[in-house]
Design goal:
two-stranded antiparallel sheet; CHAD domain; 21 helices; alpha+beta; Hypothetical Protein Pfu-838710-001
Amino acid sequence: MLKSDASPARKTQSVPGNPVARDNKRTQVVAGFLRQIEPVDHGAEPAIVEGAVIDQTPSQDAAAAPEKARSHPATRLAGEIELKLLVDADRMAHFNAAPVIAANARNKGSRKHLKSVYYDTSERVLRRNGLSLRVRQSGARFVQTVKTDAADDPLRRGEWEASVASLAPDLALAMPFIPEKLRDRLETQPLEAVFTADVHRHARMIDLPAGSVEIAFDHGVLTAGDRSLPVNEIELELKSGSASTIYEVALRLAEHGAVKPSIRTKSARGFDLAADTPPSARRPGKLRLDPSVTLDEAFSTILRSCFLHLLQSLPAAEDGRNPEGVHQLRVSLRRLRSALDLMRSVGALSNLDALRSEAKWLAQDLSAARDWDVFQLETLPTIARACPAVAGFDALGKAAAGRQSDAYRKAHDALGDRRCAMFLIGLGGWIETRGWRNDVAAEDLGQLAEPAVNFAQRILSEQYSKVLKRGRRFKSLPAPQLHRVRLATKRLRYLSEFLLQLFADRKSARKFSRRLAALQEELGAFNDMAVTASLLDGLGAGPDSAIAAAAIAGWQARASVGVQPALRDTWRDFTAARVPWSSQG
């Protein structure tokens, strides 16, 4: 299986005084596509404004903090725009000497020893609601921080700081930034120290034309009870200017040496360490598009959502213990490719094919791992339980486990390849600067300012028609043609997830989405059978597992006959559903 984004957890001795132990316009060709960095607009509003809260809050209630809290002399409200680069411990000094730093750093920077304690209730109320609460000591100063998870943007998180007297938290100072629905539970459930972070930080400020970024070289350890996890990362935090500056710096560092872009926080790693669980693999968050939004803004929102899902899926996929990690990473890459295909309808965009090609390369190197996961976790055990008299399932499982391990090694190599890092950083910069504006021909630029709903109606109608065309005489379609229907259906489902919310008929949209999802699931079952047959052919079952392999093939052949009526019914229900965009405009 794959390893985590840091070295495996190791046992440590409890440290005296440890609360956790005690309390338990420049263009460059990169990775096959163009990088375009927009010059900063110095007349624009700054990216971070002291005293302002960015729109990444836990709730409206938290954003509208009482004036008493806002005016508290010890409290600072701000937003955090940050990207991490995971590096090998012995390469940290190498990056400190990178040309982008040597040429643009203000000075040699500052060094700090940061000791932090992360708190939550025994039921992890904060963690389960996307919040973290930490108290950090730096010298004689203690700062309490409440943070939110990324909501719909990979780099941006809510952050609120307050000075406190010691490493013990002051819940009263945190309450104004906690959703009201959680406050009663926090008042009745005491906070406890969950884990600590002991980090040595070398921070330097660099100034580029587009903005200023603090580069923090963090080396240390997270400790929870008798478990620990090393920290070796470079944090890039925007201090002023355009967020694209972060990606420009990250790209230059990636050109200097091997890095892994990450948005996984120390908080997330620490809580997983304390629970001794692998990184979670999230499904994509619900996309939010206002019906009045322009096409340009819709593209930005859709791409940010895809990129956020991709970055959130990486830790679990790299870790390998949770098979959902590879699955969600592949889903995120399919969503991204669908979004890029969607943008082709505007006109010829020079970067789209290269970006899509990189996403396809990465997805292909993950596909075998996912196929073997499904075989080992679903197909084989299900049929083995149903056929207890058949011998050879254990031997077949052992042979498959070897192929599964090989597939995960291939996935691990792809995720660790510099090509992957360059792709992710370049993609993030392209989205942040809305690089498609530079690609669109002058005569097509006007489309970007038009209402997205008009574009959505045309695109959805075209793809829906393609599904219906491929599904003609559905009852008699052979397997290859059903596969073509499946691909068209999958694309329609992604487009629907992106665009259906632009239409006013929400009830119709929900019904259409349910029937579309059911059709994709039924068609996917046929595809899974074809994949299983391919895996068994490549596995080359020996004498001790041949009977089990034959049993699986026979079981699925029989199942395919039984599925036919259900598939036909699902197709009929789908084609009878009213399309939500039919009455638009």
